[in-house]
User: Fold this.
Amino acid sequence: MLMVRLLFFTTLTIGFSHSDSVEIIGLSSSFLKKVANPCFGHRCDTSACPCGCECGTAADAGLCYVPQKRTVSYNQTTTSTTSNGILVAKPPTPPNAIVSINTATTPPNITILHSFPANFLSIETAYDPSKQIYWMLTNSGSSLLGYDVKQRQLKPEIDLDITNCTQGSGCFNELRYDTHNNRIVAVGMGFGGPQNAIVAINLDKSPGAVTQISPAISRDCALYLQCSSIDSQGQMFYPWFACDDSPTAALFAINMSSGTNTTMLDVSFRDVLGPSVFVNGIGVVAVAPDNSLVSAIGNNKTKPISATLGSIPADNGLVADQNGKTWVSLVDMSKSKLAQIDLTSGDIALSNLPYIINNPAFVSDDDER
Assistant:
């Protein structure tokens, strides 16, 4: 029987699925207990808001917030929605810990695997499926802390080389694991001077070394957080940027070998897709502004996959296997949910969770052999 796993962050969670059931393990965060939405704590003075958020309120022009109603720009096929969860009237205080979530039970059963100090926080992660290491960006973006899924223990922390970060602190965003080259790929904002660039973070021969792997990207381009995806096999990186010379936001396909790029989508700022994940045979799968799933097929076109999920996705809250299934961690006001979507039929199944789950990563049983 095929066994699969997922990783996530509540702020983090990691996970596993056993044929029709899914177990997720990850990091829950008591530090974020008061955070009821993925926009909390983010500002848009110098960078774009996370996907699903809008910039500027009447009281604070630089504050990211959850819009009362997201713009609907895609015609979707109606799909039935079922729920196998039960309403949690008073969500328990989330532990600051790596947790295991087993969705074979109703509601999903949660087990604490590793506890952290109350002030521990990581909002960027990347998963190495070969060594089964879940990497967490810590210390204001200047270090990587790994969790060994097999051994159930933390790895020694790796200090990142931030000497090329113009602000003197970590400048790495949108961490994604490149399985082809066994490295972490990220967007360096202000890396190598007054510019942005795609960078590679070494984990083996020179742990923590950072090199630029793309031509410079204008410093006048703002990066959309929690929206990027990577195709390791094809060596393509897909970030969203909004540049001063254009009134729109664009999804770029950047070749990590040659540095060349093309524009896949060019949309209004309110219509950015995210979070997203690359699925072989489909391409970039993402959450649309109406909270449905679509695939980005290029030439400024998308293809609908599902009806609306009914809630805003959590931070980097989308993960997929290569067998036509995807999971989205959702935030619905004070409630948290996990949606499973069949990428072929578009069918949706919802389960209630006691607290927010962020930053998923996928693990198959092939990794354990």
The CA atoms of residues 191 and 325 lie 36 Å apart. Confidence is low (pLDDT under 50) at residues 1-20, 32-36, 69-91, 365-369.
